[in-house]
Each structure stands twice: as C-alpha cells, then as structure tokens.
Structure prediction request, 838 residues.
Amino acid sequence: MDSIKNLITLLGQNARTAAKTLRSADTQQKNNALNNIAAQVDKDRKNILNANQKDLEQSKNNGLDTALLDRLMLDDTRLDGIIESLSQIATLSDPVGEITDLKFRPSGIQVGKMRMPLGVMGIIYESRPNVTIDVAALCLKSGNGVILRGGSEAINSNLALYSCVKQGLINAGLDQNCVQLIDTTERSVVSELVQATAYIDAIIPRGGKGLVEAISDSAKVPVIKHLHGICHTYIDKDADKRKAIDIAFNAKTRRYGVCNATETLLVHASAVGRIMPELIAKFVTKGVELRGCKETKKLSKQIIQATEQDWDTEYLDAILSIRIVNSMSEAIAHIDRHSSGHTESIVTENYTSGRRFITEVDSSSVMINTSTGFADGFEYGLGAEIGISTDKFHVRGPVGLEGLTSQKYIVLGDGHTRP
Amino acid sequence: MDSIKNLITLLGQNARTAAKTLRSADTQQKNNALNNIAAQVDKDRKNILNANQKDLEQSKNNGLDTALLDRLMLDDTRLDGIIESLSQIATLSDPVGEITDLKFRPSGIQVGKMRMPLGVMGIIYESRPNVTIDVAALCLKSGNGVILRGGSEAINSNLALYSCVKQGLINAGLDQNCVQLIDTTERSVVSELVQATAYIDAIIPRGGKGLVEAISDSAKVPVIKHLHGICHTYIDKDADKRKAIDIAFNAKTRRYGVCNATETLLVHASAVGRIMPELIAKFVTKGVELRGCKETKKLSKQIIQATEQDWDTEYLDAILSIRIVNSMSEAIAHIDRHSSGHTESIVTENYTSGRRFITEVDSSSVMINTSTGFADGFEYGLGAEIGISTDKFHVRGPVGLEGLTSQKYIVLGDGHTRP
Prediction:
C-alpha cells in the first residue's frame, strides 16, 4: 500500500513539473509532438499489433466475452484511425492563452479572461487501447499533464502505444512526463489516484456506469463524469409527421449501443393518430421491441406493457419505451423525473413549444427537430471529445479541448492604484 | 444524528422542487423578489436591529473579540448597504438563458450554448449577517436554490433577515423554499450538508482558511473555495519608477486585512537602486514592518531578516516581505512556489516581459501595471461577488452570477437525422 502511495506521489510530482513547462509551450511545439506520435505509431505498427495479440490471447484464456474482445482488438484499420485522430487534433486551434472579453472599466483598468489548462488530469479507462492515444493527444493540445490508467487486459497494447507517445514528446523537445502511463495493474492504484488532490486537478473515468460510480464515490479530486444516457424524443402535438417519424426512428435505430440513442419516446396524445401507426410499423419491421404505457399498448398487439422500471432503463439495445402524454408539461415532468440529463429532443413546428422546451429542459443537450444521435463532440464541432459530461459543474455535454481548460482573469493598467 | 440527516433530506427536497420552478422564472419575477426583499428589510429595521442586539450581547458574554463583534454588528448604515446591494443585483443582467456561439455545422444543424443555473447551492458562512442577504440575492438572480448555514453567533440576526427574504419571495409569487436558512446551530449539520450530493450541486464556504479547509476535506459535493491570498507584486528591471512606487505602496497599504493585499514584493536587482530607497522610506513612514532577503536587508536598518516561512505567510497586516531577484524567471519561480494562486502583478514598461508574465503566471488574476487591490468582483464589473475562487475547476477569481451557472448545449434542426 505504501509503495503504491509512493508511486502516485512520484508520478504526481513528475506530472506537476512537466505540466508547468507544457502550460507555456507554444502551439507549434505541441502540434509537432502530436505529429511525431502519429509517425511513431505508423512506424511501430508491427510492435503494437504483436503486443495487442498478447492481450487478446490472455483475455481469451480469461474468458472475456466477444464484445470486450472486439473493443480490445487493434488492426491496421484501427491504427489508421488513431493516426488520423492525432493529425486532426493537431489541426484544432489551441485553446490555451485565448483572451476574451477584454474591456475597459470605469477605473481605467482593462479586465479580460485568458484560457489556461486545468493542470494535471487523471484518466481511468477500460479495454479500448485507442483511448491511450486519444486522451494523451487531447491533454497535450490543451496544455495539461496527464496520468493514464488503462484496463489490465490491455496493458501490453497500452505500453506499446505509450512508448510512441514518449518518443513523440522527446522528439518535440517536451518533457516526456507530460504523459505518464501507470504500468502496474495493482487495483489500489485507482483509489490512491482519485485521492491525490495535491497532484491531480480533475479525473475523467471512461467506462461503464459501475466504474464511474465507484470512482465518483471515492474521489477527492473533482470528477468529470458521464453516468449514462436515458435520452428522450418528444413528439409534440404540432410535430410535422415526416420529421417526427424520421427523427424518432433515427434516434433509436442509428446505433443501439450508444449513449445518445433515444430510449424513451414521448408522444402528445393528439399527435398519436396522425403519426404513430406508421412509426410503430417502421419500428416493428426493423425488429425493435416496443414497451408502451397503457394507452400506447392499445395501438398495436406488438407492444408490450412497460413497467415503471422501463422509464429508468438505458437499454443500449433494440428496445424502445413509449409513453403517451396529454400535454407538454407532462412530457417535461416525465423527462425531469426519468432523464439522466444527457440529451432530449422535441419535434414540433410550434415556435412557443420549441422555445419553452429548450429553456425548461435541463439536460446537457436539448434539441429541436433533430435526432438525439447528434449529441457528439465531432458533430458539435469540438473536433474531438474526451467524454460527455452529465454533470453541471465545470462542463456539460461533449467535452473537447475547452472543457480541459478554465479562465483566469487578466488586468492591464498604466500605473493604476485603487482608492 | 438521524434527525439531522432527515432535516437535510427535507431541506434538500424542498430546495430541488423550488429550484426547478426558479430555473424558468422570468427575469422580472426574480427582480421583483429582490426589490421586495429590499423593501422588507427597510420595513423590518427595528426588528432586525433588536435581533442583532441579542446576538451581540450573547457574543460579548461568550467573550468574542472586538473584530468579530464588529463583523457581527448591524446598524442603520449597514442595513442601507444591504438594501443598496439588493437593488444593484436587481439591475444586473440575467445570466440564465443567454445563448452564445450558435453556429451552423456542416450537417445542417445549428449548435450553441445556453447558460443555466447550477441547481442548488449550499453556503456555509461565519459571523457577518449581511451574507445572508447577499448570497440569497445572488443565488436568486442566477436561478439557483440555496441552503444557508450561518454562524451560530449570528443566528438571531440571520433569522430576522431571512424572514424578509421569505416575505419577498412570497410577494413575488416564488416558492419560499428557493432560499432556506438552517435554524439549528447543531454542528453536525455542516458535515451532512457537504455530503448531500443528491440535493446540493455546489458548496461555497465563506470564512477563514480553517473553515474552508475543514469543509473541502470532508465534502462530497463540489466546493468553490477561496483558501487565502498570498499575492505578489513584481517590480521588473524595466519598471517605471513612479508607477512601481505607487502600485507597490497601494497594493500593500490600501487595506491590510484583505485577501488581495500584496504580501510579498519581488524586485529585479537592477531596479533596486533606482526605486527601492524611496519606496522603503515610504513604507517605513507608513509604519509597515519590512522583512527582507539578505540583499534587501542591506538597503536599510529598518528591514528585518525574512525567514523561509515569511514567503508562505498571508500577513493580513502592516507587514511586507521583500525579495530581490536576478531575473524574471527567478521571480516567476518564486511565485510558482509560494503564491496561493490568488493575484500577482508585474510593473514593467517592457512589452515582452508583460506578455510573458501574464502568460506564464497561473494565478486567478494576473496583472500588468496595476495594484493587486483591484482583484474584486465589483472592480471587474461582475456587479457583486459571492466569493473569490482560488481553484481552477469550474471558475477562477471573483465569482459573480456567471460563476453560479454553467452552459448546456442547444441544437436546432429541421428534421435532421444523423447518418
């Protein structure tokens, strides 16, 4: 236990020192590092794939299921993706040092804000080895030091990728401790890491709800967390039929296993007759299991009775719960009670309904006439995302480079003193 | 203990319900409440001053010192200040619902951000009763519910002021639970409050370093904290003599007991001969005790030898530590090591030095050619401040209405589905 504490202290001190230099590294130097890492991954393909093979074999022997093995697996196409993502992050504009809102005050001083890195991030993630590179790249570009803790099943892949990161940093003249990977698979490392307020400024857990909850419960360091996505699409009484059907269908069936998929459809009673027969038929043809409230059940024999638990379930599957409501207030009340605060969308042609929905619904993304499937860092123009925050503190929704920074004040004067 | 837990649960549930309605209350209604509270305080002067008298007498009997008694004391002038502050907050623009950065994306959707309240705030404070009103007003205007826990020595004053708040809320047609005051002086209330993640979105402790540290150590709810202000003024080799003397003198002597007072003066060796004799004489005449490094000590017999501990001390008194440095890098290294991250200022006519200082120094306020005394919400144009954050997460520096909010995403489309 003491040796783990010592390890975290050492990593923490290294990270603090490195982050200090990274804070004022210029944009070109950071971009050079990113491009160097990309080149190194390309050069090391064989080595990385061999390491990944080792992880895959070990995991098969340990009886990991197919879905997990797929997440763990790397091949040339996935390495191409990693390389592409590095070049993309290099082209994003640097958030650090951006000055905004610089204004004169009556006293004569000018007051503005300058964007700065948070400091040192701790990232705890599960099986996907590409996270090692993605996260290193986003932290690097946003000027943050980072300590990575990947899943034990991916340790060889992660180490192989991490050696590319280290080489890329050194080649760009940056401190190699800007990114550090914890190479022990000892479990107590995580509990020490999330307590290390002296060295870590924020923790981002990337993984299932279980991991995120466990970390949030024990952390002393602030956590940027993404719990789950119980997203709603609400078809208003004034919804356009075509848009309603397209949006609801896309929001559920685009991909089932993603957090921005709609899990519950709310429908205004007076829109049911006009829209639902066609929409239900479409879902049934697609093979989506429908679980409805009492009123919904009357619409088709294919619809199973929903239980109270359904409204609180993130299916991540070809299942949709449907509830008919008598007013928009009822729809908003349902969302308030059952949403996980991720993403909700209204389909309506009515200006007042749309205006009210985006004002009153308090989720990290609120939409009018679009599929909840758009809730994503790339679609929002962030260039990349390190995760999606369902918290309200610090940052909400998809977290890009800006979410890894905050703003200090700058004050410019000419000998001003305060009376 | 269980009864305290039940109390917090009840207050928390009330606050959540009230905050939900407050989130979408319109600006006029919130301003009406603020003006109503002001009118009620004016009407209740006698009652408030009587209650305050009770607190003062009890505190005198308990042997509270003069400084604390002064903080606790209310009179007509201070009530005028409270009333004035309420009207000022009513005139500030409403941060809630502000939409920014709404832009079209290549997919055809428009993506922007909308500012929303954090939810429910918990404020833990010490003897000043005016905090009850100031904090209630700022939370109200920013759309947040709030649970207040004041010092036990001010309980009667706080209850009298709180009854004005309640009346003001009711008269404006708002839920009176938007603001709740904990009326038990039981100490375990605080530890329950800072654990109540289900009901409280952020805690702001307002008080001495001891209070803030104790709360941060035990809190599960995010804390916006202001630990202390060890602020630095650095006189660069290219400083203008007049500006350097005026700024350094003002930064130390404007008021001694405030967190934005400069505690350490750093002086470039090559500026010493030109500037320090006059500046030292000025400090000595004013009665400021000077504690210097070895080199500084040579300048005057009045200067005491500084110890290592001096560089880490917030004097809040007529004491200044002085260190002569051989380069700006040395000055920045000293600040990095000893600053509390509150406010630092450089005095220089050199463009490159100024640019480097504001980029590299990572404190919540960084200044060029101004007194650190300007680090203040009113001076920055926030209209009012609920505290000063020395954290980096969520908000840095003086915290006004915006610091009590965060931004959700809004997405506007026209039937868009994601491929």
User: Anything to note?
Assistant: The mean pLDDT of chain B is 96. The CA atoms of residues 191 and 214 of chain B lie 10 Å apart.
